[in-house]
Write a structure and sequence with these properties.
The structure is a single chain. The chain is α+β, with helices and mostly antiparallel strands. Helices cover 22% and strands 28% of the residues. The chain is built from 15 helices and 46 strands. Strands 20, 21, 25, 26, 27, 28, 31, 32, 33 and 34 form a ten-stranded mixed sheet that branches. Strands 2, 4, 5, 6, 7 and 8 form a six-stranded mixed sheet that branches. A hairpin with a 2-residue loop joins strand 4 and strand 5. Helix 3 runs parallel beside helix 6. The radius of gyration is 28 Å and the shape is globular. 53% of the residues are buried.
Length: 865
């Protein structure tokens, strides 16, 4: 057991290099075996000058305010902590030191300007990407070196022929006019005494590439493709050499003939000189010409708040077959998001073409669901023998790949799928006795991985891949259990606020791009716009970050004020273009919003629910008058909702599962009697349809809780365990390895849903996993950040055991239960610094402290630590 606290962490970042805030908040975990913190002391070592705070009473250990002078640009500080706990009168040992290093915090720190190719290009055509480079000299010994870099488009940097970093699709997708992310790399080990070279591959990416619906749009943020980089070499003698992008750099066409996020990438190895980013490369050749410069306001440059996109796994094909046309068909056994890496040897000029798809139709790649995303990569071999290649600037959603032009024998390991997503830390796991439910949960995890690619997207394979606000609104509780996504979603919510219209309208998706007549111009829509109120609240409750809630509070308040104006004195939001319960299973393929439930019932329900969240948020933030104002508003909207949508006999005007689910989950009914009637009617509707699901995006995250909370746990389990179409387990029985966009994306006969919006990797309907974590396994929070945990397993559905584990900000929390011949055997784990409440049916709640605890209801109610 360790006598030290865990090393300090900074904000929601995996490490402290290049941090973008001058006063980063600090978090740590208590030493093993310690129960509760009484006090702590921090030490900040700035260039060999340590400063200690002295003993600070209190239990705070998560996102603790920075205790010293703010960081200045480039400043490095070593931080460590020790703690006092009640059972140990002496302080703990000091934690191992952690280093935080500020990025470039001031606009005038930047000397670099964007540079790219000066070759004339047709802005309306497929343009060939460029590479840029410059030579420089390291004249004296190096202490350390940093590369600060971003791009108009995408970049991959190299120094002396060696790749810098392992991230891809950087700098990611933000509202580029307002925020352009830059990354900081430690490149000390890349440098050599004497001659050196720094360069970068460039690509269009989201900045000027073709993105969006119906053929897409180019040049949405600009027409240049440029690198903005600043290499700072700090020498042991105290001097600094700065190599920044400027007009002295050179550019040349890349051996990448074309690359697009949707289309794929074509690479001609015959045009590639691997020495291009080394001092040995001849820059006098005609292909290298002086760069063109562009402009960028350095005040818009911002440091990242989370990890970048990286490769997190490699998967080999499970089967390789040869088609009648002589092509290879690879099945990787898992629908994933990533790229193929091939290792191949053949004659120069041989073109190997890779096509991708999520599913097969009649034994061939089903490409219709991709729409205009051709998802095709081509590699043209040179004469150097065996070579390994992977695309740089594209991603595909696929399980199957077709290979054309493969030279010679195909051997094991010749093609490997590399899985890419934002490299968040995994924090949540679930398992139970039902293998179909376990596969469903794995499908949810895989869909989150595939759609958390810098922003939370809606699908990773077709010509869309947008940050739909409603999708993450319903999925955020599940996402925040499975992965530490606080930093990523905080960053994205910042862009949501930037894209919010002056009147308070929240866009359908962020960043905003043209979306055709249905999505443009932007209109306010319930469930989607409510991401402004609901998602910051979820992140606050799950991660304990009150500052995050404070930063996004104005956005949520503006959204509710807009709904207030639209509803007027009636307090009913019964106007506008609403999506309603999107993708209700009865909705026809060409009209996903045509569900059972009145769209304006949904809109008014969300109006009340968001107003309530503004009340709760204001109360947490210390704004009692604001809380009272929005509490009254929420009450008035709920009253109007009942008057309009609850009939005298207690039924809803839309006698549909989603109507009852929102009324129950959002607390809109008058009293316990009305709630029980609604719950009973909801259960009747579910059973009348033999427990086949009858909800879309809005009702699906709510229905199991609505049933559970009104005494119909058995019916909720019937829904969960149903395998007929539509149901959560139907896709599992059809071989799905991710969550589908539609309940019937594939029909029982193996044909595909004819709708143009048919994805096989879409997390929204997987929001049921949050209920699985809290109810099936029984692991929930009672205070923000899981400081107090609730363990309340509620068995059913023939499941005989279940378990869940979550890495809370304080440490590991876990529950495992098993039905025995005499009762329920429950084991729980409470992290140091926390407490748990164990609630089992028929027993009074038991409050337990940190550590391992067991309750066996069959052993005369014995409780053991």
């Amino acid at each position: 057991m360790s006598s030290q606290p865990a090393p300090v962490t900074f904000e929601h970042l995996p490490d402290g290099l290049g941090i973008g805030v001058p006063e980063p908040r600090l978090s740590w975990r208590l030493p093993d075996g310690r129960t509760a913190q009484d006090a702590y002391e921090l030490e900040l070592d700035r260039a060999g000058r340590p400063y200690r705070t002295g003993r600070i009473p209190g239990a705070a250990q998560i996102l603790v305010p920075w205790p010293g002078q703010p960081l200045t640009s480039r400043e490095r500080v070593s931080v460590r902590v020790r703690v006092w706990t009640g059972t140990h009168p002496e302080p703990s040992a000091w934690s191992e030191p952690s280093t935080v290093e500020a990025g470039l915090l001031r606009a005038d720190d930047w000397l670099a300007v964007p540079v790219g190719s000066a070759t004339a290009q047709d802005p309306d055509s497929d343009r060939r990407p460029a590479r840029v480079r410059t030579d420089f000299t390291v004249a004296s010994p190096v202490s350390h070196a940093r590369l600060y870099v971003t791009a108009h488009g995408l970049y991959e940097a190299e120094i002396n022929g060696r790749r810098v970093g392992d991230d891809i699709l950087s700098p990611g997708w933000t509202v580029y006019g307002e925020r352009l992310r830059y990354y900081t790399y430690d490149v000390t080990a890349h440098l050599a005494q004497g001659a050196n070279t720094v360069g970068a591959w460039l690509a269009d990416g989201w900045y000027r590439g073709r993105i969006g619906f119906d053929g897409g749009h180019r040049n949405l943020y600009g027409t240049d493709q440029s690198l903005l980089a600043q290499l700072e070499v700090h020498h042991t003698d105290g001097t600094t050499t700065v190599i920044a992008t400027d007009p002295t750099w050179h550019a040349a066409d890349s051996p990448i003939l074309f690359t697009g996020l949707y289309e794929g990438e074509t690479f001609d190895a015959r045009r590639h000189d691997p020495r291009w980013s080394t001092p040995q490369h001849d820059t006098t050749a005609a292909m290298w010409t002086p760069v063109a410069t562009a402009t960028r306001d350095p005040r818009t440059l911002t440091a990242p708040r989370s990890a970048p996109v990286r490769c997190t796994e490699e998967i080999h094909p499970v089967t390789v077959t040869t088609t009648a046309e002589g092509r290879l068909l690879l099945d990787f056994g898992q629908n994933l998001v990533g790229r193929l890496r091939l290792t191949v040897d053949g004659p120069a000029g041989t073109a190997v073409t890779l096509r991708h798809a999520e599913v097969l139709e009649d034994g061939a790649l089903a490409t219709r669901p991709l729409r205009e995303a051709t998802s095709t990569d081509t590699y043209v071999l040179d004469d150097t023998g065996q070579q390994t290649w992977e695309p740089r600037f594209t991603l595909h959603g696929f399980r199957y790949a077709e290979v054309e032009g493969w030279p010679g024998e195909f051997t094991d390991g010749a093609i490997v799928a590399r899985v890419y997503h934002t490299d968040m830390r995994r924090t949540g796991w679930f398992e139970c006795s039902d293998p179909l439910i376990n596969r469903l949960h794995e499908n949810v995890v895989w869909s989150m991985r595939g759609n958390f690619v810098d922003i939370p997207t809606d699908c990773p394979q077709r010509d869309e891949r947008l940050g739909w606000t409603g999708d993450i609104q319903v999925f955020a509780p599940t996402a925040s259990f499975l992965y530490d996504c606080a930093g990523m979603l905080d960053s994205w919510l910042t862009d949501v606020a930037m894209e919010q219209l002056p009147d308070g309208t929240v866009p359908w998706y962020v960043p905003v791009i043209p979306g055709g007549p249905h999505w443009t111009p932007i209109k306010p829509g319930a469930a989607w716009g409510d991401v402004a109120t609901l998602t910051p609240w979820v992140l606050y409750r799950r991660f304990g970050d009150l500052d995050l809630l404070r930063r996004h509070f104005p956005m949520g308040r503006a959204w509710v004020d807009l709904m207030d104006r639209l509803a007027g004195e009636s307090r009913l939001w019964d106007t506008g273009d609403q999506l309603g319960d999107w993708l209700d299973p009865i909705a026809p393929p060409n009209d996903p919003g045509a569900g059972r439930t009145d769209r304006h019932l949904v809109a008014t329900a969300y109006f009340a629910w968001s107003a309530r969240h503004v009340e709760w948020s204001a109360r947490e933030l210390g704004y009692p008058d604001v809380a009272e104002q929005y509490g009254r508003l929420a009450d008035e909207v709920a009253k109007a909702f009942r008057a309009r949508y609850v009939l005298p006999d207690g039924r809803m005007s839309s006698d549909a599962p989603t109507a009852y689910s929102v009324a129950l989950a959002f607390g809109l009914l008058a009293d316990d009697s009305a709630r029980q009637f609604a719950g009973d009617r909801l259960a009747e509707l579910v059973l009348e349809d033999d427990a086949r699901i009858a909800t879309g995006f809005v009702g699906t995250p709510l229905i199991c809780d609505a049933l559970t909370d009104t005494g119909h746990l058995d019916v909720a389990y019937r829904l969960l365990t149903q395998t007929d179409c539509p149901s959560w387990l139907y896709p599992v029985t059809m071989g799905a390895t991710t969550v589908w966009e539609r309940w019937d994306s594939m029909r029982p006969d193996g044909t595909l849903n004819p709708g143009g919006m048919t994805s096989f990797n879409h997390y929204a309907l997987g929001a049921v996993a949050d209920w699985m974590h809290r109810v099936v396994a029984g692991l929930d929070f009672a205070e923000p950040g899981y400081r107090t945990l609730r363990f309340r397993p509620r068995p059913g559905g023939g499941i005989t055991w279940a378990k869940a584990r979550h890495e809370t900000p304080y440490g590991t929390a876990a529950v495992a239960w098993e039905q025995t011949t005499t009762g329920l055997d429950v084991h729980v784990t409470v992290p140091a610094g926390c407490q748990g409440v164990i609630e089992l049916d028929g027993r009074p709640p038991v409050v337990v402290g940190p550590g391992e605890h067991r309750i066996d209801t069959g052993e005369l109610g014995r409780t053991a630590a």
